[in-house]
Amino acid sequence: MKEIDDEFDVKLGRIGNRRAGRATSFLRRVRQEAQKAVPSSRRASSFTGARIGRGGAQGTVLAGRGRDARRRRVVIKARIVRIKAGDTGAVRAHLRYVQRDGVTREGEPGELYDTASDRADGKAFTERSAGDRHQFRFIVAPEDSAELTDLKPFIRDLMRRMEQDLGTRLDWVAVDHFNTGHPHSHIVLRGKDDAGDDLVIARDYIAHGLRARASDLITRELGPETEIEATRKLEQEITAERFTRLDRAILRDAVEGRLDVGARPASEPAWQSARIGRLRTLERMGLAGEEAPLHWRIDTELEAKLRRMGERGDIIKTMHRELGAAGLSRAGGSYAIFDPEQGGRRLVGRVVGGGFSDELTERRYVVLDGIDGRTHYAEIGALGANEEPPVRNAILELRSRAVEPREMDRTIAKIAAAHHGIYSDHLHRAFDVQASGEYIASHVRRLEAMRQAGLVSRQSDGSWKVGENHLDRALRYEAFDRSRKPVQVAVLSWHRLEDLPQALGATWLDRQLVAKVPEALAPSGMGAEVETALRVRRQWLIEQGLAREQDGQVRYARTLLQTLESRELARTTADISARTGLEHVEVKAGDNVTGVYRRVLTLNSGRFALIERSHDFALVPWRPVLERARGQLVTGSVGGAGISWSIGLKRGAGR
């Protein structure tokens, strides 16, 4: 007969205190039972603050609830994002991301919805978030989500249940994604409660409570997991090349790397059989070995190795999918993973595809068809506020980043060491009278980036307090920055390789032709395509009078790149003048240019910013910082190393 939780045993003995004891409340008894369910190490641990905030009690109770074998599983990832005061750029960017193309079943852009409407107003939500201190972002992925025809009712039920647990109405929007093998939903929750105060959610509720509520809802919707479903899922884990529940159970029962299967048999025959099958699979992988009947040796790095194996399997699937979408066929043996940890690594190739390796933190990957004849997968980290993702068919250069102070850090340290740990642009000019304004400004931008990481401070007079150990701080910043962006990405060509051989302008092919040490090209894949494109480009340059054949070699004009760029800019400015009626003004080193930034022009010679004034316009080298000033007045100082921009100044300075 199944045990009944409410049964009790009568114990005879000496009668104790006859006075009526104080009744224990139901909530107190629940908390006591929940505390018993927590492992002893946790009970003995010090205060963690995991229950501070709304939903703390519910999170504790749900965390202590035993795992029901028939309850369906839900994976929930959570992230709390800090929002700068008055800056909703990150909110807008995230909403654009979750609504990107190709996330619906039909390959269309995603549609925001909320508690009452299937078409929520993202702009209004962003405006309401302007004063928020933080924002919650969740990814909710039921294991059996493919069986749901629509995720919206499930997400709305989950958010209503969350409101009940937290005791406040919630302001949220969500988007459903069907672009992976597991349909899932992205939820963006404002960090304010219904009273306008900061919404603080207990860590226990985020870690345990929300997942338990979602599991209850999906189980109620689809019914408890049947024995056939459970057996099928378990059988899939036996041969899986990743870390599974079976592996977790094996590690739990193993003692110092040894597992006695007979001493700790599984409670169910199906689990016992699956565990034996999994051990045989691990043996074939070289991660376990049977030393005697029912006695197994387990690899001490089992979990780490299986997780790496699972990641590699996911990467290979991603590369195969991206190559198929681009219409390319490459041998599986040519697949490679770009490892930025190996110093001095460099890779050049054509963008086949890209996406998010981690949707919650918005870390990106890119797949490159390399000129070395191999297909590479590379993690490029999260994009900055003014950066854009690589586009398909663009030609990129990836470099691994060395964690070491830069030359500008050494310059700052020298100046600060002579002035009690203080740096300023005035002190820099006194230190190096030949330094240009743009050069000094690059040092200031470096310090501003370090200030945002909490490593230096800016004083009221505009100077910087960097301390005497600035190089150590610069090293810490480089390590922190590489964790966010593990590689340096440079765009060599925004245009397709097929369009370059006869293109007007200084192309990547031209830079290869005049390079002292040109790129090494493989005889297959993109390497062969580049070799063919270079031959066609040489012939085109000869026809244009910019190269000639002499003694069996091709001689190029000394000013080849400058001539090609000038020709392309001349044609582009003529087209703009004919279309707008404005006169083109050439900007030279030493000039100041003031006007309204209109847009970026992507030419074969590079990217240029269109700066308009009342009667004329200028084309100047483009920088990402200009994108946040589109349609605004900007002022630039042209130096030898580039242009230093100021945004939003009055119409005083001119050229």
Please provide a written account of the structure.
The chain has 655 residues and is α+β, with helices and mostly antiparallel strands. The chain contains 18 helices and 24 strands. The strands form 6 sheets. The protein has a 6-stranded mixed β-sheet with strand order 8-11-10-9-12-16. It has a 6-stranded mixed β-sheet with strand order 19-22-21-20-23-24, covered by helices on one side. Strand 9 (346-358) and strand 10 form a beta hairpin. Helix 8 (227-238) runs parallel beside helix 10. 26% of the residues are buried. The model is unreliable at 1-22, 37-45 and 649-655 (pLDDT under 50).
Compile the SSE list and pairings.
Blueprint: H1 26-37, H2 40-43, H3 56-64, E1 74-82, H4 89-98, H5 122-128, E2 134-142, H6 152-166, E3 172-177, E4 184-190, H7 203-222, H8 227-238, H9 245-253, E5 258-260, H10 269-284, E6 288-292, E7 295-298, H11 302-326, E8 335-337, E9 346-358, E10 363-370, E11 375-381, E12 395-400, H12 407-417, E13 422-423, H13 425-431, H14 437-452, E14 457-458, E15 464-465, H15 470-484, E16 487-493, H16 508-513, H17 526-543, E17 547-550, E18 553-556, H18 560-580, E19 583-584, E20 592-603, E21 606-612, E22 616-621, E23 633-639, E24 642-647
Parallel strand pairs: 8-11, 19-22
Antiparallel strand pairs: 1-2, 2-4, 3-4, 5-7, 6-7, 9-10, 9-12, 10-11, 12-16, 13-15, 14-15, 17-18, 20-21, 20-23, 21-22, 23-24
Helix pairs in contact: 1-3, 3-7, 6-7, 8-10, 9-10
